[in-house]
Amino acid sequence: MCKLKVTDIYMNYHSKQGETPALQNISFSIDDGDFVSLVGPSGCGKSTLLNIIAHLIKPSKGYIYLDGNLLTDISPDIGYMFQNDELFDWLTVFDNIALGLKIQKKLNDKSKKHISSLIKEYNLSEFSNRKPKELSGGMRQRVALLRTLALDPKILLLDEPFSALDYQTRLKVNDDVLTIIKKERKTALMVTHDLAEAIAMSNKVILLSDRPAKIKEEIKIDINNSLTPLERREDPSFRLYFNKIWKELNIHE
After folding, report:
1. Are strands 18-31 and 35-39 parallel, antiparallel or unpaired?
2. In a designed cystine with 229, which of 122, 168, 174, 243 is the match (CB 3.0 to 4.6 A)?
3. How far apart, in whole angstroms, are the C-alpha atoms of residue 79 and residue 97?
């Protein structure tokens, strides 16, 4: 079943100097349970596209469908995980995870029990009443993801969620986050500049061109899905996918 459908998206920016096209004729679909990565040159509009899907900004033209329904506004079925973890230092881990539900006035005994179960399931029980400054970078990202999952969205949008982490931590958190997303049976779309990360975590990679961004190619990643991202990097076909994507990104149309 098609979970997300992006159809004929165009985005133009207007200024005194005139109109600047950013996105042109972007169309793709994501099936239920997919983990898809968007890659492309810096500044090509990857995050802009994510913001359009989340309805944080309106496209110049085009439509977004979720489960076959046209999205016309911000949807509670779409969860967004930003580049920074955006945790509040004065709140405990539990209260940070509960924040979205509290804002939506959905924090009750049932949702609190669900938060407690997520904290226990993903090995944060010891830190439930601690402040974010007491956590490692990897744990902070886990808390940020659980805050999004507590809202029970149908699809997750991840905007370079690991960019602030050092390389070693990033590799570990790749494993943690993908494990959680699979276990919670979520569909995900991630923006990343890291080609190896995209291949290691995704079952499909969408390549965008320079601005104005168009889809150059969609590449299915056929590596054993039961492997962790770290294990997938050791697969013999990993290097072939990397070389193919690298070559495509460096072909100037």
Report:
1. unpaired
2. 174
3. 13
**Are 117 and 83 a contacting pair, CB within 8 Å?**
no
d(C-alpha 220, C-alpha 43), whole Å: 24
Q: Which amino acid is at 183?
A: K
Q: Which of 210, 146, 221, 219 is nearest to 184 (CA)?
A: 146
Contact 26, 62 (CB under 8 A): yes
Spatial strand order in the sheet of 204-208 = 78-81, 155-159, 187-191, 35-39, 204-208, 215-220
The 3-state secondary structure of 162-188 reads: CCCCCHHHHHHHHHHHHHHHHHCCCEE
Upper half-sphere CA count for residue 156 (Cβ side, 13 Å): 31
pLDDT surpassing 70 at residue 2 = no
pLDDT tens figures, 83-132: 788 899 999 999 999 998 998 888 899 999 999 999 998 889 999 999 99
Asked if the model's pLDDT at residue 150 lies above 70, the reply is yes
- Residue 126 contacts by C-beta under 8 Å, 6 or more apart in sequence? none
Q: Which two tokens stand for residue 168?
A: 């070693």
Buried b (16+ CB within 10 A) or exposed e, 133-159: eebebbbbbbbbbbbbbbbebbbbbbb
* pTM attached to this predicted model: 0.92
| C-alpha count within 13 angstroms, C-beta hemisphere, residue 168 | 1
Any bridge partners for residue 200, and if so which? none
